[in-house]
Each structure stands twice: as C-alpha cells, then as structure tokens.
Amino acid sequence: MTKVDDRVESRAGVGGGFSRSSPGTSRGAAAGVGRAAPRLYALDGLRLIAALAVAAYHYGGRDGEIAKAWGASPAVQFPTAHSWLAYGWAGVQAFFVISGFVICASGWGRSVQAFFASRASRLLPAYWAAVILVAAVFALPGIAFARVSVSEFLVNLTMLQMPLGADRVLGVCWTLWAEVRFYVLFALCVVLPGVTRRRVIWFCGGWTLASVLAHGAKEPLLDMVLMPEYASLFIGGMGLYLVHRDRRDTAAWLIVVFSLLLSQYQTVEAMWHAPNADYFSYRSQLGIIVAVTVGFVAVGAVALGLLNRVDWPWLTTAGALTYPFYLVHEHLGWPVVRALHQGLGVPSALTVTLTVALMLALAWLLHRWVERPLQPLLRTSLGGRRR
Prior knowledge:
By secondary structure, the chain is mainly alpha-helical. It has helices spanning 3-6, 27-30, 41-60, 65-70, 74-77, 82-85, 90-106, 112-138, 150-156, 161-164, 173-191, 197-217, 220-226, 231-245, 250-271, 285-303, 314-343, 348-381, and strands at residues 18-19, 39-40. It has a two-stranded antiparallel ribbon with strand order 1-2. Helix 7 (90-106) packs parallel to helix 16 (285-303), helix 8 (112-138) crosses helix 18 and helix 14 packs antiparallel against helix 15 (250-271). The chain is globular. 47% of the residues are buried.
C-alpha cells in the first residue's frame, strides 16, 4: 500500500453523518480518492435512535429528579415498561462507538488545527445555548429543580466543570467530557503525526493496553486520562471504521472483537448490581451484555454496507437534531413532564410522547438559529477549513 493510499481522506458530515464507500474495496479506494462518497444516512438514524433511547431512560427508566416531575417513581408510572426503559442508558455506549467511527474518519487528511476547529465548532454553539437556556429556565420562580450558583454556571460554559468538581447545568455533559478527552488523545497520538491505518491500529492497541493497566492500578489521574470504563467503546468504533475501509482487514476485526469483549465487562461492572430494594434499576447482566452488543452490531452493519439502502435524505435532519436534543431533553424535560402530567393530568405515555416532540422542536430551533449560523463562523475563526 502506498503512502498516498494510506493517507486518503474521508469526509464526516457536520451532523455526525458520514460519507460511505463500497465495502470490500482496497483501503485506498475505499475512501474515494479525489471525490466525495455518498453520505451514510443510516449513521444519522442510529444517532437519533440512541438519543431517543437515552431520553426513554431519563423519563421512565430511573428515579431521581424525574420522580419529582411525575409525582411518583417512574416504576409506578410505567409498571411494566420501566424495567425495559432502564436499558435506555445503552444509547450512550452506542454514541461512543459511533464517535470512534466518525472521529477516526474526520481526522484523515486534517491538520491538528483543522481537527480541533471542526470539533469545537461542532460541540460549542449548541452547548453554550443549552447551558444558558437550562440555567435561565431553572432560575424561574416555581421551577422546583436543582439550580447551580452563578460561579458554577459560568464555569459550565468552559465544558471543564467535571474535573473541577463543579455542579453541572446539564446532566448529560459528563459524556461530553469523555468525548473531549478522546479527541485530545486521538489528536495528539494520531492526527498530529498524520493519520494512517498503521497509526490508528497502534493507537487502538496501545490505548487498550494502557486503559486496562489503568483499571488495575486504580490511579485517579490515569483513570481521568485513559478512561478505562469507556476507552474500549471509542476504540471499537475506530476499529469499525477500519473495517468500513476494508472488510478484509484482520487487525481491524481483532480490534472490534476485543473492544466488544472489554466493553461488555466494563459496562456490567458499572451498571449491574444485585437486586436491592434501595435501587430503582432492574437490569440483568445478560441484558446489559445484549444492549452493548446491539450498539456494536448496529454500527457494524453500517460499516459493512448492510444499511446502504437506508438512504432517506430526511435522516440528515434527524442526525442534525440529535446533539441539541441530547443536550436539552433531560433537564428541560422535567418541568414539561410535571406541567403535562401533574398540572394538566395528561396520561403518562402521552406525556412522554409530547415531551419528546417538544424537545425535538426545541432541538430544531437550536440547530436552525444557533448551530447553522455559528458553526461555520467558529470553524473559520479557529482556522479550520470547511469540508
């Protein structure tokens, strides 16, 4: 394989979508030398499905603030469904696998500056808007949900509140902190020297070993940098991108298989506990393993071209709405659920449906009036070429 073939660029869409190539082709040809390949619409659809699964978990699969909104535990509101909705958290695991796939692709052929400009312009505009909006709503009289101090609100705008131990304005922002650390590791180890298949493979192998050692060492600094609980999910996504480039790549398949095996173990360790009356969740070990595997299989189906027929253009919009919806659905969903269910007496299932619809509408507004004008402006200001 020539260096030109190994460095060929692939394109990732702003909404997290991805351009596709024909599976089974050579690694160089797979990315489409000199031309843009068709978009992977199915990946946009998977992102929205993952976000809706997380929303189902937040609205009906856990206790906490949402119980205040319902006026009772979701186990009471959804006596049968709550035990299934408790698996909705697996949407986050799927997000991390998709992120590994897309970020590995988007770094190909880019400088570090362009890579960071792309990531910053993708994450920050909607994030800033969501932090301001949620803080403003929670400051209104009669909103009986946890608020943060002015100082904590301001530090939340940096997206660095997690390592500082500050309260979060957005509960879901812990996943963004994991994403940011992944971007930095990938940029320094792979993008900076230049993305090639060989460097991606070495990075995946090295990070896998280092994260396992960090898990055993139980050293807080190593845990923060190497993220042993999530590393295998990002790594699995990168392996699946290499499979997308060449389905005959044995090393890529080994990365995917090892990552799945490690991911199911790490997730069972984090999410399972023996039956206990003091806990809300009703997850089994087998259920957790299946949920994690489904995320890998779904992204794998995209990587192998099995979902190429899913090429509906409206999925581009679905993918674009995923990120702002994910940011606002939990905290702004609480007052909506309370107003509909306790205030107006709307039945539980219809309350969830209406809340999701309202959050999707808000996500569209954030995408239309915040992301679309600010993303290209921020990208250009930071020195990243629009791709």
